[in-house]
Design goal:
Structural class: alpha/beta
Organism: Rhodobium orientis
CATH topology of the largest domain: TIM Barrel
Number of domains: 2
Catalytic activity: alpha-D-xylose = alpha-D-xylulofuranose
Subcellular location: Cytoplasm
Shape: globular
CATH class of the largest domain: Alpha Beta
Keywords: Carbohydrate metabolism, Cytoplasm, Isomerase, Magnesium, Metal-binding, Xylose metabolism
Cofactor: Mg(2+)
Strand content: 5-15%
CATH superfamily of the largest domain: Divalent-metal-dependent TIM barrel enzymes
Distance between the termini: 41 Å
Number of helices: 16
Number of strands: 14
Radius of gyration: 24 Å
Length: 435
């Protein structure tokens, strides 16, 4: 045990009228919503990297956080783990997430680095024996070290590809050993800065083979979790191959992986791609590749990925509505890929950020469930497309009618369809009744 959170009591549900800043006003883990516990709907996770590794710097200034575990020794990694599980317990968080480089220092060789990761994973396993918190997903950091400056799988140097493969193999196995529900591949530098030195087709083929290798090893070791790709359009590269959900699906189809891999959608990345969070959720559901989400937000004035804790209930409620409408999470959940502001220096700030984010998710869930139970929004959409349920419309889509057949019917029957209002303003007002 550490004394980092000394004097801070566990966060408890106290109801909507609570004025205690370290209480949940809406997140009641055992409350039933649409026949399922709130905790089981949301499956919320604390991320290791922002919460315990980020020093508080930005492009114009360095470290502002003073954490006793900041260092490169294994004793520092174990202290970090102690503090992490203390935060998990304070929040009653059901899950956590990590990169391999978050949890253990990098060694002089890949073998040493992998041993360090496995040692800390063993330390995690011992702590999980007395904690409710489980692993939502693990992932390998294939972007921070300078060896990955030109990508990992897409690197022009095959030795970098091989090194990344060895790193992912280890992390995937560790994730399995810890009972992880998913494994994520975030291609932080799988893209390009300029076309002047880039062969796009070659790099895509390399990336396709790398992902196939990961899927093959998943089956070889008997990992039952889901393999996830996290789309992002840019930053740090000028253009990344996993630009958005649609780009990922096209990539998966090309390499025959659309039945094996799903997506982890981040709010901030969706915005950078020019979409809303719910746009990407619905696209993933339409393609059949919806997996998990990262819950955060961007500062809309900044125009870059600021990774702030979620605090916008109406935006999140609509996203959760579409998640619920699609059947909810299977192996995925809400991961708080969010970091404190660099002026939020105190240990209690970590508790405030997560507790507030959890409460926002809970309040959004209640609004989304109410929308779903009311049924007005779904009924409107069903009615708008009702014409496609007629026998003639179904015949057009099923291949029973040729283009000439369709054109002949229009002329024969004198069809002259009139526009119908989409009633967007009415629907926006309808949503606001619940959020």
């Amino acid at each position: 045990m550490s004394d980092f959170f000394k004097g801070i009591e566990p966060v408890r549900y106290q109801g909507p009228d609570s004025t205690d800043p370290l209480s949940f006003r809406f997140y009641d883990p055992d409350r039933e919503v649409l026949g399922k516990r709130m905790e089981d709907h949301l499956r919320m996770a604390v991320c290791y990297w922002h919460s315990f590794c980020w020093p508080g710097g930005d492009p114009f200034g360095g470290q502002t956080f003073d954490r006793p575990w900041f260092g490169d020794a294994m004793k520092d990694a174990k202290l970090k783990a102690d503090v992490a599980f203390e935060l998990f317990d304070l929040l009653g968080a059901p899950f956590f997430t990590f990169h391999d480089r978050d949890i253990a220092p990098e060694g002089e060789s890949l073998s040493e680095s992998n041993r360090n990761v496995r040692e800390i994973a063993g330390y995690f396993a011992s702590k999980m024996e007395t904690s409710k918190t489980r692993l939502l997903w693990g992932t390998a950091n294939l972007f921070s070290n300078k060896r990955y400056m030109a990508g990992a799988a897409t690197n022009p140097d095959p030795d970098v590809f091989a090194y990344a493969a060895g790193q992912v193999k280890n992390c995937l196995e560790v994730t399995k050993d810890l009972g992880g529900a998913n494994y994520v591949l975030w291609g932080g530098r799988e893209g390009y800065e300029t076309l002047l030195n880039t062969d796009i087709k070659r790099e895509l083929d390399q990336l396709g083979r790398f992902l196939s290798l990961v899927v093959e090893h998943k089956h070889k070791i008997g990992f039952d979790g889901t393999i996830l790709i996290e789309p992002k359009p840019q930053e740090p590269t000028r253009h990344q191959y996993d630009f958005d959900v649609s780009a990922v699906f096209a990539f998966l189809q090309r390499y025959g992986l659309e039945k094996e891999v799903k997506v982890n959608i981040e709010v901030g990345h969706a915005v950078l791609a020019g979409h809303s969070f719910e746009d990407e959720i619905c696209a993933a559901q339409a393609y059949g590749i919806f997996g998990s989400v990262d819950a955060n937000r961007n500062d809309y004035q900044s125009g870059w990925d600021t990774d702030q804790f979620p605090n916008n209930v109406p935006e999140l409620a609509l996203a959760i509505y579409y998640i619920l409408k699609g059947g909810g999470f299977a192996t995925g959940g809400f991961n708080f890929d969010a970091k404190l502001r660099r002026q939020s220096l105190d240990p209690v700030d970590l508790v405030h950020g997560h507790a507030g984010g959890m409460d926002v998710c809970a309040r959004a869930l209640l609004g989304a469930a109410a929308m779903l139970e009311d049924g007005s929004l779904a009924s409107f959409v069903d009615d708008r497309y009702a014409g496609w349920e007629t026998p003639e419309a179904k015949a057009m889509l099923s291949g029973q009618r040729s283009l000439a057949d369709i054109a002949e019917r229009v002329e024969r029957d004198g069809l002259d369809p009139k526009p119908r209002s989409g009633r967007q303003e009415f629907l926006e007002n309808l949503v606001n009744r619940f959020v």
